[in-house]
Fold each of these.
Amino acid sequence: MPKRLPVRGETVTLAHGSGGRAMRALIDSVFLDAFADTAVDEKDDAALVDFDSSGGDRLVFTTDAFVIDPIVFPGGDLGKLAVCGTVNDLAVAGARPAALSAAFIIEAGFPVADLTRLAKSMAQAATAADVKIVTGDTKVVDRGAADKVFITTSGIGVLPKGRDFGAHKVASGDKIIVSDAIGAHGAAVMAARGDLKLQTELCSDCKPLSGLVEALIAVAPSLRLLRDATRGGVATVLCEFALAAKLGIRIHEDSLVVSDPVRGIAEILGLDPLYLANEGVFVAVVASADAALCCQTLRALPGGAGAAVIGEVVDDYPGEVVLVSPFGGERLVDMLDGEQLPRIC
Amino acid sequence: MKFSSEFRDPAKAEALLKAIERTLDGMPRRPDRPIHVMEVCGGHTHSVFRYGLHRLIDPRIEFVHGPGCPVCVLPMGRVDDCVKIAERPEVIFTTFGDAMRVPGSRKSLTQAKADGADIRMVYSPLDALDLARANPSREVVFFGLGFETTMPSTALTILEAERAGIKNFSMLCQHITIIPTLRALLAEEDNQIDGFIGPGHVSMVIGIRGYDFIAELYGKPLVVAGFEPLDILQALLMVLRQLKDGDAHIDNQYARVVPEAGNTVALDAMAKVFEPRPVTDWRGLGNIAQSGAQIRTAYEAFDAEKKFALLAADVPDPQVVKCGEVVKGRMKPTQCPAFGKECTPQNPIGALMVSSEGACAAYAQYAAPRLRTGRAVEVADA
């Protein structure tokens, strides 16, 4: 193994992005060190990934850019988010994650120690998701030209032959399943921004979903639709489902699982947990007959404790989502316009 | 979660709905229209729609959505003032979140922020004061928006700024008061309001005696209510029982929070810092005398209007939207010619479309036209 160069100085500078010795030192000591267990130990610009298509398996490819303020929050950080986000995009497409790339845009002045922490946390998340980070890139920009660090990850996954779900399979009577309690990531990040000055027990739900998805597919061959409920929350996914399937969706407010800390912060700020972001929660549509077993299976797994059937697909009001309150009142659940803003009173 | 679930009990809601129905059965039916009950406060409007109460109540009653949403009645000219101040390079402009999207004649605060102005959302005026402490070379301006609900906290912030000798903090005062506006609404001869569900948080500060004129002069009942669905249904029942008995007085459903005399500590702080403004412009309602507050001369060092020598510009409401008619209860949001056409939640023209407490935004968000007709009724019965 070639000797690794030590990084000099405590903060990232433009020199670290110059392509020369300083950059190699940064890559060596921060990234290759952190990814030693997950990545191939090569510094070539491209990685080789083995893939056997003879059985009819196909490749799934996705990319996502990650920015978040603050970069560290209860339950995760930007690094974990960047891995989980792309892993989850692959997982909800039905694919088993195989390889990731990671590109970093770093603002000059960012502490090397913090970058190392992000890289370690990416490595941990990758290990948890059983995926390797096989290639990457680093750019450093002037102070003010980026906010601390931006990470872009791309991922390749393998879609086994025969896995085929989509809106065309959805039928009236199908059940809607959510894999865990909702809104924790959005609420935790909002609280972590610090300007609320609230002491909370909020913790982001940021986690890889690939294990839960595999377990779901194993017990529910009838799986019709699957998506992770990130920005825009569960409400937005349901609206997209209803539009794509050209059927109505009816959900029941008392079936939604919302933790007390999330409910509390939502009440105080006038936010709706249905629209809060999640980074480790998926929404699935399955045949009615499979729904109970799906929930039972998910609840037995870590990260699926709050799994619940929250509603059903109906023939009424095609393309729309309706929420029924515990005493029978109902309202339309629409897509969010812009971001949710805290209300004044 | 104990602090709210007991106010959302389905069995109790059903009992209240039945009691409302029975009360109506004992009353002669109006030939011309349903009974109009105005929920004054935007928070109530939001709850009515969020819990679908407007669809659960007997059709012999109709909710009329009142002017009690400070964001909704924020006039364009005032948004322009905010933008003007926020665009000054030395200023950090701070505001509650929901004022960000209100359209001005040039731009909203959201647009101004995108164009480079330093605008920050805060949750309390004290956070703005902390920003002033942390940024001594900048001018921190807080947009003091709201009814009596938010006035005590801004008054106390100004008192604290004075005590601590903070020179780089000021407030643009857009505080408004609900009583003069209710007076103006009732003074209009063709108003069609039979009774009121009165604001909860405002009354927590001002108490309930200020509403007496509504019963005494106009013979209409008002019941101060909390914001949970059961609060609103119970208050509605209390209003109906008064109407049935031919009675009109001011009642308090929200006694767990609202003391009859209000909060004297808060009222004292407000009286110290604020005085009535001769005239205040309300979006949709126009100018109403003595309906707003301004900062007293003794505290003018903290008055952004003085500090930045603002001349209040009178910008007329956009002609296409009928916010005024909706706020006065003469028109349903869907009857406005711009509703869902030029004016949508994506592109709000009228302020009632901007805030989630605005009647039009609530209609658009929770009760799209497709849902309000026909089939949805079957769903409710299912």
Note: The interface with chain B takes residues 195-197, 250, 260, 263-264, 267, 269-270, 314, 316-317, 320, 322, 324-332, 334, 337-338, 341-345 of chain A (CB under 8 Å).
Amino acid sequence: MNDAIAVEGLSKRFTEVQAVSDLSFNVRQGELFGFLGPNGAGKTTTINMLTGLARPDSGTIRIGGIDCTDRPRAAQHLIGVVPDESNLYPELTGFENLCFCAALYGLDKAERQDRAKGLLDRFSLAQAANRKFGGYSKGMKRKLTIAAGIIHKPEILFLDEPTTGIDVASARQLRQLIADLHRTGTTIFLTTHYIEEAERLCDRIAFIVSGRIVRTDTVEHLIQPIQEKHVVQILSVKTPDDMKGRLTENFPDLEFTTQGQELIRVEAHKPVPVGPLVRFLEDQGAEVAEAKRIRPSLEDVFIQITGIEVDAMRKEKEKAGGGQ
Amino acid sequence: MKLWIAFWNILVKDMRTYYLKPPNISWGLIFPLAWTGMFFIKSGSGLESIMALLPGVVAISILFGTTSMLAVTVTFEKKNRSFERLLLAPIPFELLMLAKTSGAILFGVANAFVPVIMAAFLADLSPVSWSIFISTVFMIAVASTFLGLFIAVAVSEVFEAQTFSNFFRFPMIFLCGLFFPIEKLPIFLKPFSYVLPLTYGADALHGAVHGGHAMPFVLDLSLLGAFCVVLFAVSLWNIKRKWIL
């Protein structure tokens, strides 16, 4: 199968910051490829370079087989882009915005209007079609921005943080729309910091940290090694200092990680003896509030590979752009 | 791809969104009317001075009308990122920027005719060479628009664009021979006059309206054309350098 996107040795520096370094990856035709990383990891810079909004310092980019390295706008007829912020025209209505975006791709008036009406129906925005975009809610804005990104039926769609800053119901609906687009054969390059979103939607995922790809694989392959693990999470209060050391000494077959004083995570290649563990903690003066077995997820893989706490990443993003 | 569809829709969108709004229509009317009133009625030399003042009032109306608009259509759209949507469209960059500036050019031409209509009630305009006049009005509108584009691209905030515009616009009122002949300027100011595009537009307008021009029309219009090409090329180069990082 041909690659929809092929990137080799891509680097970009902004004055004193190395935004991305030596990125190499490929996205197959029809694939939903996730680009996962914390704020400032280089996700948007990468999208900007792939879509012609930024010039790489080095490396090569091929989009739909077209070499875009020296001609960054050469493949723009093939791509659709949904930026991380809705950038439609607040003075135009939803319908007018979609028609205008279609006109930028040379579509005739009748076709523009047909497609705009179709997308407004599909995105449940028909009733707001004649309202100005500036008056839309965040969720409606995101939906219309995605509709504008696909109105010309692009072969390759770039989605930059599509569900950031919108309510849970809208986010769920958008994920469904993304999954539907994927089913119809559109190649999708999705950046997100929501790991569960990437896990649910993507065929393959690249983890990017500090401008470098640290791992690229299918969701299945990423999760497989840790699915064989047994994980227990213990929530305790009044936990004495150095509890991790004491636990490791008494349970040498188990791996312990702590998050603050209250959360202890236990991993093992055999079932974790929860009863003895809880009794040991209580003997040491801790009060165990909860102990539960958890199913390892992509989040665990992410933490393992990058060393970045997902909660910290989410909070940081939400502080910057509003919560989900 | 039908590029004219993209071009036309960008132009129509800008006209609807920015130019045909009440504040701009009133600005486009009131501003030339104010200049006209100030110079025609308060000049103290009676109605016979209208033909001498008309070229300057026309030129100044175009200059202020066009340069003000680019701060909105370009700087504002860059600031709120909707300009990225245009940069992502498969349209040649030069055509895209021509589409973004065409509305301002039309607005400038429309502004030019406000003082002309007023003058028609107060003076005999039959001696005016309309073919030269209209060509010059169009060329001044293009040059002023591209000057506005050059300014709009050089800054990142709308207020900076307006401030920076005034840095060029107000000296041009005095230096370009709109109301005061360049020959009467102090010798050290004359070189500045000849590096400003409006000098050549004003000269051609004076020639078209009352025959008092210093340079041949062909030279005036050619130099205006050269300014247009240079300002447009520098603006495009600046956009590519600053906005496509």
Note: The CA atoms of residues 110 and 291 of chain A lie 61 Å apart.
